[in-house]
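Sequence design from tokenized structure. All designs in this work follow the same two-part layout: the structure record, then the generated sequence. An example of the structure record is given first.
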């Protein structure tokens, strides 16, 4: 079991519970996470959903030791199918759950970690939170749920993609990606306080407010852009398969292994 789940006072709390691996996402974790989101969405007693993580870090992204077949078996068709389901369909479904959701983020939130917090409606970040997407070094222009431009604005999005450098919690708040930045030891309490304030609101009003904002973004092109960028992302995989054979995965793995 990689996911914790509990409900109290109209709030469903979903917890990433793989701290020994910095909450890196293997396929089992993502499947369990999707099941937890579905459970919360279907539970009529739940008004607000909180996504949090155990340990020092929110998520080190995809587990590079888990997601690939052997080199002689891997194909672009396999990659497209696996990523379409777990990285695109899951994240868009979480985004559109008709209940307010809050991501509570501490420590590192790397690449695939962004795909867990960005679908949430609100983000509360600890002061030590760092958000990054270094996958351009793989010849890929960003993770599969390409929310960068919408979350950070075009120029800041290009900066983190071109350089791979982390964005601090303070920078993320200034860009509008993060709602609140709080001391690390207050993260759970501040997130719970915000969730409790929302939980007393009428569920139908919350649902309609969320739908109105999400549909406004969709009219502006959000959904189409995410779908299009996903296909662009796959060309990076195709290039890596035909030219490099993914040796860079080892370097990314080494980088993540250094996270304490």
């Amino acid at each position: 079991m990689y996911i914790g789940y509990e409900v109290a006072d109209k709030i469903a709390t979903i917890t990433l519970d793989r701290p020994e691996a910095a909450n890196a996402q293997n396929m089992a974790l993502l499947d369990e996470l999707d099941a937890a989101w579905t459970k919360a969405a279907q539970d009529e007693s739940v008004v607000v959903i909180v996504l949090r993580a155990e340990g020092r870090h929110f998520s080190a992204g995809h587990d590079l030791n888990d997601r690939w077949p052997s080199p002689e078996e891997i194909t672009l068709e396999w990659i497209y199918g696996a990523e379409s389901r777990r990285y695109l369909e899951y994240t868009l479904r979480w985004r559109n759950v008709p209940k307010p959701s809050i991501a509570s983020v501490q420590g590192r939130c790397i690449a695939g970690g962004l795909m867990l917090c960005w679908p949430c409606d609100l983000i509360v970040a600890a002061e030590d939170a760092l958000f990054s997407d270094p996958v351009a070094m793989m010849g890929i222009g960003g993770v599969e749920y390409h929310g960068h431009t919408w979350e950070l604005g075009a120029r800041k999005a290009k900066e983190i993609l071109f350089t791979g450098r982390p964005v601090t919690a303070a920078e993320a708040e200034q860009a509008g990606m993060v709602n609140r930045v709080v001391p690390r030891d207050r993260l759970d309490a501040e997130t719970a306080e915000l969730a409790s304030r929302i939980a007393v609101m009428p569920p139908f009003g919350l649902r309609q407010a969320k739908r109105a904002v999400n549909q406004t973004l969709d009219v502006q092109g959000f959904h189409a852009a995410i779908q299009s960028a996903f296909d662009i992302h796959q060309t990076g995989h195709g290039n890596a398969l035909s030219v490099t054979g993914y040796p860079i995965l080892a370097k990314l793995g080494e980088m993540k292994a250094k996270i304490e």
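The mean pLDDT is 90. We note this feature because it recurs in several other targets discussed in the main text.
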